[in-house]
Design the sequence.
């Protein structure tokens, strides 16, 4: 098993910083394995939508950039156990609480014991 990749994450979550990083990502260019074409375009749009509607609340509730935007450091979203809530599937968030985000009939839990940590999707380098 390889050692985890060290990643500098925001010491204090900042939705402006997250939005700037996402807006700099090209929705027409895949950022990592597992996010391609229309799926990546949908994920990109729903990340921005989430920040508009729930960003401040997510910060207040303690959600981190890895909780929301994490991907595996070498295989992207292919390893979903490393992924944050907003990079999986491109569904629109319907609600948020301290430990979960609801996407219609799907719920993302951030407090899964033993869940590995990824890197932010914007930091993916292959």
Sequence:
């Amino acid at each position: 098993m390889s050692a985890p990749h060290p990643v500098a994450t925001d010491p204090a979550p900042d939705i402006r910083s997250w939005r700037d990083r996402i807006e700099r990502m090209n929705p027409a260019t895949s950022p990592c394995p597992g996010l391609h074409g229309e799926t990546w375009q949908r994920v990109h749009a729903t990340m921005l939508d989430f920040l508009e509607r729930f960003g401040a609340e997510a910060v207040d509730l303690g959600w981190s950039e890895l909780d929301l935007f994490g991907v595996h450091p070498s295989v992207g979203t292919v390893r979903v156990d490393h992924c944050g809530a907003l990079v999986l599937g491109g569904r629109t968030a319907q609600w948020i609480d301290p430990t979960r985000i609801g996407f219609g009939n799907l719920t993302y839990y951030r407090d899964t014991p033993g869940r590995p940590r990824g890197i932010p999707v914007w930091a993916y380098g292959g």
Summary: The chain has one domain: 15-123. The CA atoms of residues 58 and 109 lie 13 Å apart. The helical segments are 15-24, 37-60, 65-69.
